[in-house]
Design goal:
The complex is a heterodimer of chains A (144) and B (315).
Chain A: H1 2-15, H2 27-36, H3 48-62, H4 66-71, H5 81-86, H6 90-93, H7 103-124
Helix pairs in contact in A: 2-3
Chain B: H1 3-15, H2 17-23, H3 27-32, E1 44-53, H4 58-61, E2 73-78, E3 81-89, H5 95-103, H6 105-123, E4 129-130, E5 136-137, H7 140-149, H8 151-161, E6 164-173, H9 175-180, H10 206-238, E7 244-248, E8 261-271, H11 275-282, E9 292-300, H12 309-312
Antiparallel strand pairs in B: 1-3, 1-4, 1-5, 2-3, 6-8, 6-9, 7-8
The chains are: A mainly alpha (144), B alpha+beta (315).
């Protein structure tokens, strides 16, 4: 199917002023665009469930080692609202930790880490003030 | 992977439509699961590849192109907008049919490449908004009503994207190459003294082994750092040429076939006539950095910028 199409379309895309990726373009590059980019609107055939399947496939193909990327500090997608909102279903299928973190989760994690840090500081007798950055301190440390 | 399984399901649907209606999870499938024979050529749905302004050269170009399942393309127009559409068999593009196709990598690759080839051919003709894979309507009337409902958004996007192309920039780190390049790092201290006798390489001292491992780790770290620096320099070099920037995930799965490990994967929206300048701006970026590669892909139709501007506009 794609072969005959490529044959028919090869010449035309070659003439294109936009140049030719043609059928020679890297499959990973094509998949990440056609599966995850482009105009996303609901058609009549509900693809909401299908959506999850697409993401499953995509995850398997493209982002098999999300945790490795995180290890290297590449985690911008967690801050990208368009990616993180759509990343929600991934959590179900991914072994990788938390590619689904939206800003809520980040905030939550942030405050949890702050709390832990305060706790540790308290344990080693450091003043809490050294943590201050204008954010109110978590209160649960007071009693310790 | 489970195509056979789905064939079985379709047969079941045809044999017992009522039951199918009960198990189908959505209205679309219920309407599509007619008690016809599955091969009924009349049962088709409208698959949308891309949107454009109405009345462009795409109207005459479309019938010369072939889409999925070898269906001829046509434009479906409503007001100032057109959709590039082909008819596809309803059973193959029901939710179940699509799922079966897309879970099989070779099927998925074929569908994705065809979808992409249609968009590319259309984009050679006029500015288009690429639709995501598998955007399917019951008929052309439904496509028209979608165009009508969203005409303001789509019109705005088309104006924004007019005359622009998408260029991809990927940066790769390849520690092994970095290690092989002489000036990259002092080569690891040679094995002290080749062990007497036959086995020279395998029987190294534990200490030499550890040194080697350490050097290897250092090279890895250095290559990733260098690649990170190169990736960080890309936006600075091209920001004046690009209208917007979008970050994709690095490709790190089975299909990531680049030189080394992909550490950054971005897309830029660039005026078509500045494509050459864009390439020039990145020329030589990683030439003197061993183990780091920069790959520019495209021009692409503006896939990464076809969502409302707020989502993708970075620059």
């Amino acid at each position: 199917m794609s072969d005959s199409l490529a044959g028919r379309m090869g010449p035309s895309s070659g003439m294109s002023p936009y140049g030719g990726q043609g059928s020679s373009a890297n499959l990973a590059d094509i998949l990440e665009r056609v599966l995850d980019k482009g105009v996303v609107i609901a058609g009549d055939i509900q693809i909401n469930l299908l959506d999850i399947e697409l993401l499953t496939v995509k995850l398997r193909l493209l982002v098999a080692s999300v945790d490795k990327a995180k290890e290297m500090g590449i985690d911008w997608w967690e801050h990208d609202p368009s990616l993180s909102s759509r990343a929600q279903p991934r959590q179900k299928v991914a072994d990788a930790p938390a590619p689904a973190a939206g800003s809520d989760r980040l905030a939550e994690e942030n405050s949890r880490l702050r709390a832990e840090l305060a706790e540790l500081r308290a344990a080693v007798g450091l003043p809490k003030s050294s943590l201050s950055d204008g954010t109110p301190q978590p209160q649960q440390e007071e009693e310790r | 992977m489970n195509t056979v399984h789905t064939d079985a399901q379709i047969t079941e649907v045809d044999a017992a439509p009522t039951e199918a209606g009960a198990t189908a999870t959505q209205a679309g499938a219920t309407r599509l699961a007619r008690p016809d024979t599955p091969t009924d050529p009349g049962t088709t749905v409208s698959y949308v590849y891309a949107l454009s302004r109405a009345g462009t050269a795409l109207d005459t170009r479309a019938p010369q192109l072939t889409g999925l399942d070898n269906g001829p393309l046509r434009t479906v127009t409503c007001g100032e907008l057109s959709a590039l559409v082909s008819s596809v068999p309803a059973d193959a593009y029901s939710e179940e049919g699509m799922r079966a196709r897309l879970e099989d990598l070779s099927e998925l690759a074929a569908v994705a490449r065809t979808h992409h080839a249609v968009i590319e051919a259309a984009y050679a003709t006029t500015t288009v908004l690429p639709m995501r894979l598998a955007t399917v309507y019951l008929d052309d009337a439904r496509v028209r009503s979608m165009l009508h409902e969203r005409r303001a958004d789509f019109g705005e996007l088309l104006t924004w994207l007019q005359g622009h192309v998408e260029l991809g920039v990927k940066v790769y780190a390849d520690p092994r190459e970095a290690a092989a390049t002489p000036p990259a790092a002092a080569p690891p201290a040679p094995t002290p003294a080749p062990a007497p006798g036959s086995a020279s390489a395998p029987v190294r001292s534990g200490r030499a082994y550890l040194q080697q491992r350490r050097a290897q780790r250092r090279r890895h770290r250095d290559a990733y750092r260098a690649a990170g620096a190169v990736a960080g320099a890309v936006p600075d070099r091209v920001s004046a040429l690009a209208r917007a920037r979008a970050a994709h995930r690095p490709q790190q799965g089975d299909l990531a076939s680049g030189p080394g490990e992909n550490i950054s994967n971005e897309a830029y929206l660039v005026p078509a006539e500045r494509t050459g300048q864009f390439h020039q701006a990145l020329t030589g970026l990683a030439d003197d950095v061993p183990g780091v590669h920069v790959e520019i892909t495209g021009p692409w139709a503006p896939y990464s910028f076809a969502t409302p501007p707020t989502a993708g506009a970075g620059t």
